[in-house]
């Protein structure tokens, strides 16, 4: 019975719905179930006053579950941690923090200031989250400190009233007796300072500018260029016959060189397209293009090695990886569900691409960085696997060729 006439075809849509539904729902799980916890943030306390020390201890011991503070000795050390993407932001209490807070109860009040650092290049989503979290923490500190100041002001007011009580009571019901209700050491001009005693300055480091979405844009085109290139590379040699073993060796050699040429051309073309069509202003054009070329060659060989050993249907593995990567690589590890963090994101090839490209775009690093080195190893291993297959498979000689 032909398959086209079989009633079993009615089951296919149901199976497709079950399988594809599971795949796509699992793929978007990181975004839907985003659960940020213990996002690492730096803390620098330059202030040597009691207020700064107390505040630092409070933040270290009782920080919201969303963030986790790590204490650094200087802004420079915290900056290095940001460059290494160990922290996504930071809070700095300057040297005059306690002194400024103390002036709020004097005749010359001065609002205290803190600096909020945002490591924008590490992860765009985490940067937004950290900025909101730190701003909320400063708002909470304002509320707490404002309440403490108002209590101190009230205490001073009560002392003044007690000192003036004998005089005011002696006046009986005169206008002077009503002064007691009007006594307050707070000047109208400093009411706003009392309400918000701490002001914050937001400082962005490793800025992304208009390139915030560049890693995702480059990732999409780079991955599909690699998929198509690997498929074509396989198809051009599949079931091919040769006049001799030497001809096959020559073909395999050309086949092994072509991915590098293809990747080089594609890397520069994609980078140029990004400046022309998307308006990307790339500070390191050549670095970006060469990094893309390296990634395309690594991905092509990785996919090509797989289909050489497992045949063309195995390319579905990498198609599925596309969906599992799209949402996961946009989030910091601290923001995704434990399942994804422990079992998926650590080995996603596209994660190394995105993180490596950030190094080039936002951290002024070279093409060869810690992430590209991993991709080079992927390329080397895949290259070896391809040649093992080339040398181990039987050579099919064309029937028209006379065999001696």
TrEMBL record:
Residue span, ABC-2 type transporter transmembrane domain: 12-387
InterPro entries per record: ABC2_TM (IPR013525), T7SS_ABC-Transporter (IPR051328)
Pfam families assigned to the protein according to its UniProt record, in alphabetical order: ABC2_membrane_3
Regions crossing the membrane: 9-32, 216-236, 257-278, 284-303, 315-333, 368-388
Bilayer topology term: Multi-pass membrane protein
GO MF annotation list: ABC-type transporter activity
Gene Ontology cellular-component terms listed: membrane
Cell compartment(s), UniProt: Membrane
Keyword Transmembrane helix: yes
Main location class: membrane
Protein name: Predicted membrane protein
Species per Swiss-Prot/TrEMBL record: Solibacillus silvestris (strain StLB046)
Lineage: Bacteria, Bacillati, Bacillota, Bacilli, Bacillales
